[in-house]
Amino acid sequence: MAVVLDMVNFGRGTTKLPHSVLLEMQKELLDHKGIGTSVPEMSYRSSDFAKIINNAETLVWELLAVRDNYEVIFVQGGGSSQFCAVPLKLIGLKVAECGAWSAKAAEAAKKFGTINIVHSKFGNYTKIPDPSTWNLNSDASSVYYCTNEMVHDVEFDFTPDVKGAVLVCDMPSHFLSKPVDVSKFGVIFAGAQKNVGSAGVTVVIVSDDQLGFALRECPSVLEYKVQAGNSSLYNTPPCFSIYIWGAVAMEKLSSIKSKMIYEIIDNSQGFYACPVEPQNRSKMNIPFCIGNVKGDDALEKRFLDKALELSMWSMKGHRSVGGIQASLYNAVKIEHVWQLATFMKNFWRLL
Ligand SMILES: Cc1ncc(COP(=O)(O)O)c(C=O)c1O
């Protein structure tokens, strides 16, 4: 019997998009949320597009726990334009050249100021030179590196200590795939097409400290202060790419949130039990019983009472199935899920 498999895109250039996102795009293509027009036709100054871009931005803030002293902007021009935006902003750049992309960034930056390479080329880019051998100790204002060199496939598993210089990071293939301590960086940029959407939009996270200065030659479209000051609407933004970006990030967010709770259930040695098979579990509504697979009424009541004391409510399962049900809809933030996860762990361990 012939087995037909779905085509899976393992390409390095552009990411596979989640099937659910493609279906949503298809459903909404002609008429976005019943407003009578499609996203590519929408005015980028309209309140409808404002909702789309605000949602995309909020998701970056949530997923990466970005603090108030940072700006999140969406720009055109890809990672390559940031190779120019960064040196136009931060003169005296140093580059950790560990692969083709950081080599390109260094080449682009040379046009605008003094560039030092922190280490001479290391073999055929098969390894990251030991940071203790990097030439960091002069007066460079900033250090640029790429977390994952997509051509040579060298990945940083640490954040370099750059001795007080501003750290700039090109992060496309990592972006939103793992937690990042944003506070260590002056600038992070990532083209969406690698991990979180389709080509056309680049997300830049820039600390407020880095907004001020830019070289006189810096075109306004590349100036972070201008883009941040205009909420990414200084020039026409890539509306459809931002819309896709938001949908993919939302999908990621719900996977992360539901995983936090399912992991506790599955690691609780039967204390919490989810009746649904792992491959069919909802990311939005998580049902579970407490005490055993059928649920212990007294324990479940205690769980709900304790949860209420901690301001977590409405988790009683539907009357037809009983047990507990936690719904993780979009407005339920990661920190709320974290609060529930911590409570579940404590309830189980301290019983
Ligand atoms: C690490 C890295 N930086 C920058 C770029 C350039 O991105 P763009 O083609 O969007 O300018 C790429 C593209 O693959 C990349 O992998």
TrEMBL record:
GO molecular function: O-phospho-L-serine:2-oxoglutarate aminotransferase activity; pyridoxal phosphate binding
Tree of life domain: Eukaryota
Keyword Acetylation attached: yes
UniProt pathway annotation: Amino-acid biosynthesis; L-serine biosynthesis; L-serine from 3-phospho-D-glycerate: step 2/3
Ranges where the Aminotransferase class V domain occurs: 9-339
Family note: Belongs to the class-V pyridoxal-phosphate-dependent aminotransferase family. SerC subfamily.
PANTHER family associated with the record: PHOSPHOSERINE AMINOTRANSFERASE, PHOSPHOSERINE TRANSAMINASE
Protein name: Phosphoserine aminotransferase
